[in-house]
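User: Could you check the structure of this?
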Amino acid sequence: SGRTVTGGVRMDQFAVLKFPLTTESAMKKIEDNNTLVFIVDIRSNKNQIKSAVKKMYDIKAARVNTLIRPDGLKKAFVKLQPDFDALDIANKIGIL
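Assistant: Sure, the predicted structure tokens are below.
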């Protein structure tokens, strides 16, 4: 059987997603890779991030990659499914 993640911290979508990143490299990801970049709560997992993005912006994530930055913040790369355009959504959120 696959490993299951149980327990953890119960968080709503506002607790999980802190803010979108607007750096140059994040912009490049939006344009070239159909990917949105967020700073997220350090305790959130990929499934929580996926469902938080879905609830908040009504978009489906194809996959979520995360890393923890040297300053201790967690960064999430949310790759969107092909039928969503990251540029449109970034405009809607107000990143661009």
